[in-house]
Design goal:
By secondary structure, this protein is α/β, with parallel strands linked by helices. The chain is built from 13 helices and 12 strands. Mean pLDDT is about 90; it is low at about 35-40.
Length: about 375
């Protein structure tokens, strides 16, 4: 699995249209009225990476297995969702385990598509959603407090650490900031992650614009770019309507021609994936052979045994060494044997830091 994104936003901002287009399914009904998505929708897409196909061609791989990205689309939130307005926040539990939040924001004017707040204002819309997510996290933490306090008094070390983290997060949330603004050490990251707080997750803002603004954006997307920059978030400008048209095209050539005709160089999916990888600090490594060519996702700065563990926990537990070659060297020297012949195929140990594009064979013994 590449990574998992939870899609949030107000009703009628284009969430379901975008979800349908990105996942090339009609699983989420898209309609011009609030709350048309009444239960969580999940879709998976292959992460496009031309390097994988070039590697597979050289190796004569019978099967090509890209890494995958999973989208979880939930019903549109409205102001007061935490108090039961609209459909309430009953579906938020479905995105507590995602890696990142994809926040779809309406950045287009259209009199034919109603706005639940009466007018288009992306900054206001973001604040509404953020407030509802923070309230949901507050409620989640407050429910845990009594049990944690009881365990901590009993001498449970883990409960004490968790309780301390809960109190620190509550201070941030009660101050009107999302949990991701809490400063923590690398050692504390697992504790915060285990709390499964929605507002602790990194955010990618997807600015949904009209077809005319897809290439260059508009004043509303500039405001969102400024907002994202102040938060350390990322943003992309996408037209859900264009993505729906692209999804209907069958061949790569048709899609490329269509994109070129409207002044675009890549699809919205490619943009979302690219920015998502940057946001989460992910890289890709490969395992290549005659049976299959496969792409894997790994956190940046992770070491060879951790990469092996992405394939199977036994590989990490019994790690001996990693035989590796850089993607560029694999391509330049026409495959593994050619790379070996010029000394580009190396053996690396436990301390080797994986680089984007590395091609691996792992040696292990359990």
């Amino acid at each position: 699995m590449g990574f998992k994104c939870g899609i949030v936003g107000l009703p009628n901002v284009g969430k379901s249209t975008l979800f349908n287009a990105l996942t090339k399914t009609a699983a989420a009904e898209a309609a011009n009225y609030p709350f048309c998505t009444i239960e969580p929708n999940v879709g998976r897409v292959a992460v496009p990476d031309e390097r994988l196909f070039k590697l597979a061609e050289l190796a004569g791989s019978k099967e090509i297995l890209p890494t995958q990205l999973e989208f979880v689309d939930i019903a549109g939130l409205v102001k007061g969702a935490s108090k039961g307005e609209g459909l309430g926040n009953q579906f938020l539990g479905n995105i507590r385990e995602v890696d990142a939040i994809v926040h779809v924001v309406r950045c287009f004017e259209d009199d034919d598509i109603t706005h639940v707040e009466g007018g288009v204002d992306p900054i206001r819309d973001v604040d509404i959603i953020e407030t509802e997510l923070m309230i949901s996290d507050l409620e989640s933490l407050e429910k845990r407090m009594k049990n944690l306090e009881k365990k901590a008094k009993g001498g449970d070390k883990e409960a004490k650490e968790t309780l301390d983290m809960v109190k620190r997060v509550l201070f941030v949330l009660e101050g009107g900031k999302p949990a991701r603004f809490l400063e923590i050490s690398e050692e504390e990251e697992p504790i915060l992650k285990n709390l499964q707080l929605i507002t602790s997750k990194p955010v990618l803002y997807v600015c949904n614009v009209s077809e005319d603004d897809a290439a260059k954006g508009n004043p509303l997307t500039l405001k969102m770019a400024e907002r994202a920059a102040t938060e350390g978030a990322r943003h992309v400008v996408i037209s859900a309507a264009i993505e729906a048209e692209i999804a209907a095209l069958e061949t790569h050539e048709e899609k490329s021609e269509f994109l070129e005709s409207i002044g675009l160089t890549e699809t919205g999916l490619t943009q979302v994936i690219g920015e998502g990888y940057k946001l989460l600090k992910f890289i890709t490594f490969f395992t290549i052979g005659p049976k299959e060519a496969r792409a894997w996702t790994l956190k940046k700065d992770r070491k060879a045994p951790q990469a092996a563990g992405e394939i199977h926990t036994d590989f990490e537990r019994g790690f001996i060494c990693a035989e590796t070659v850089a993607y560029e060297d694999y391509i330049e020297h026409k495959g593994e044997q050619g790379a070996k012949a010029v000394g580009k195929f190396r053996q690396e140990g436990r301390d080797y830091v994986v680089r984007d594009g590395d091609v691996f064979h792992f040696r292990f013994n359990i």
